[in-house]
Design goal:
heterodimer, A: mainly alpha, Non-ribosomal Peptide Synthetase Peptidyl Carrier Protein, Chain A, 3 helices, B: 415 residues, Aspartate Aminotransferase, domain 1, Aspartate Aminotransferase, domain 2, seven-stranded mixed β-sheet, four-stranded mixed β-sheet, 16 helices, 44% helix, globular
Chain lengths: 83, 415
């Protein structure tokens, strides 16, 4: 099902991490464990989310597991926008 | 003893997995000095045979140069075998200072500090000069030693797409709230053989108040008109804040590395860099050898000129034969095979033809980007290159990849 938040995150992930010949990325594609986003690059994803949604994600919750797919990232963002 | 049979079996399983996947690396045993022609025992126990070496970092052919060897001998006679000390305790001789000054002059920087290797230089430099208030923005294809050094540093970490200046600019803009910004790149990228556009990077760093660090290990001695490195190629000598490089490749091929750059940053390394504080000083024999290398290079550009011609000849030969190559103009010329097993088989077939060139595959290069990385030397003569080209063409025909595109090779052999 289409989801505006997930679409925004997916669009950012594709622009930030994917090259022209990359495999397609969907809401549930493993990003960190799939090697698309390395641990060094997570920081710009975290900063994008914090700036876009005016939230602050504690470092101990900005884990590779929490960022491993668009679905999981959307869960995290919703948790902090509702907090 | 805690190494139980269960533990042993577990590791044996991992190693067997590498063999099954075609990813197990094997050493070859060289029974001669490093040169264009070498004598190799492979596999272990096989007869020693003469082959042409196409995969050394011996870019200028100085690894066994008689003048370098003589200078090393004389250095050992005059200054002993080893220092048995780290630098700051009692491991610094006058010749270490002389070498640091020579490197500073050669690279066009303000100061230099030696390290036991460039791996150590890269491991130590970031934590020595940055804090958690700063950010490191590195090219996504930087060398493993830079990745390791970045991991050891408490500063924020971020990356930009390989050599993508628009993406770098976005990151520099994003991180204006940090205390300092440090952009990190290789000068020549060791697996692809392309170069970082240092002129554009310097312009961006000036615009966005950032420092730039370049690891020029695959460039020092031969890139640029007088071999000063990638910064000379791009006309930005004097504008690099930090250059790290090795003496273990073109600059003699023994050991040693350095951090060279802004006086204050070098001094921070001298005060705080852990490999400098806790690892042994470079041996006098090596220091004197490196000093002779610089004497040779600063007297004439003959070697780097020959290397440039050799590399162009080699690349043209491979292109005309129909191999898929990575674009570039350095002496690193990757022959792309994409499939790890193909790269291993191709390397073994080349060896049967008297050519020593190793297959590279994951994790050394990204998955599905396996290759034979060829490296040209000023020690190669045209007859070496012609024999190697003939061998590559013969093996290329055997595997039917000549004139094939990347897609065709992948369809045939898999990724």
């Amino acid at each position: 099902m289409a989801d505006e938040l997930k679409d925004i995150v997916l669009k950012y992930v594709i622009a930030e991490y994917c090259e022209d010949d990359s495999d397609p990325v969907t809401y549930d594609t493993p990003l960190i464990s799939g090697g698309i986003v390395d641990s060094f690059s997570m920081v710009s994803l975290k900063r994008f989310l914090e700036n876009k949604y005016k939230i602050s994600i504690p470092d101990d919750q900005a884990t590779p597991e929490a960022f491993d797919s668009v679905d999981k990232i959307a869960l995290l963002v919703r948790k902090f926008t509702q907090a | 003893m805690s190494f139980s049979e269960k533990t042993r079996a577990s590791y044996q399983g991992v190693l067997q997995g590498l063999k099954d996947a075609g990813l197990f690396k094997q050493e070859r045993f060289i029974h001669s000095s490093q040169a264009a022609d070498i004598e190799v025992e492979f596999p272990a126990g096989a007869s020693v045979r003469k082959v042409i070496n196409m995969c050394a970092n011996n870019y200028l052919g100085l690894s066994s140069h008689p003048a370098v060897v003589k200078a090393a001998h004389e250095g050992m006679d005059a200054r002993g075998y080893g220092m048995s000390s780290v630098r700051f305790i009692c491991g610094t001789q006058d010749i270490h200072r002389t070498l640091e000054q020579k490197v500073t002059e050669f690279l066009g920087t303000e100061d230099t500090i030696l390290f036991p290797s460039c791996m150590d230089a890269n491991a130590g430099v970031f934590e020595a000069i940055l804090t958690k208030d700063d950010v490191m923005i590195s090219d996504r294809l930087v060398h493993a030693s830079l990745i390791d050094g970045i991991r050891l540093c408490s500063a924020m970490q971020d990356t930009y797409k390989h050599a993508d200046m628009a993406h770098l600019e976005q990151k520099l803009e994003m991180h204006q709230d940090r205390r300092f910004r440090l952009v990190i790149t290789d000068g020549v990228f060791s697996m692809d053989g392309d170069t970082a556009p240092l002129d554009k990077m310097v312009a961006l760093c000036e615009k966005y108040d950032a420092m730039v660090l370049v690891d020029d290990s695959h460039a020092s001695g031969f890139i640029g008109k007088t071999g000063r490195g990638t910064h000379e190629k791009y006309g930005v000598v004097g504008k690099m804040d930090v250059i790290t490089t090795t003496f273990g490749k073109a600059l003699g091929g023994a050991t040693g590395g350095c951090v060279s750059g802004r006086r204050e940053l070098v001094e921070m390394c001298r005060q705080k860099a852990r490999p400098y504080l806790f690892s042994n000083s470079i041996a006098p024999v090596v220091v004197e050898g490196i000093l002779k290398v610089f004497d040779i290079l600063m007297a004439s550009t003959e070697r780097r000129d020959k290397l440039e011609k050799n590399a162009a000849y080699w690349r043209k030969g491979l292109q005309e034969a129909g191999f898929v190559l990575k674009e570039g103009d350095t002496p690193i010329v990757p022959v792309m095979l994409f499939n790890a097993k193909l790269a291993g088989d191709f390397s073994r077939a080349l060896y049967d033809e008297g050519i020593y060139a190793v297959g590279f595959f994951f994790p050394v290069v990204p998955q599905s980007q396996a290759r034979i990385r060829t490296q040209i030397s000023a020690g190669h003569e045209i007859h070496h290159l012609d024999k190697a080209l003939d061998a590559f063409k013969k093996v290329g025909k055997k595997f039917d990849i000549l004139g094939k595109t990347k897609q065709e090779i992948i369809e045939r052999f898999g990724m």
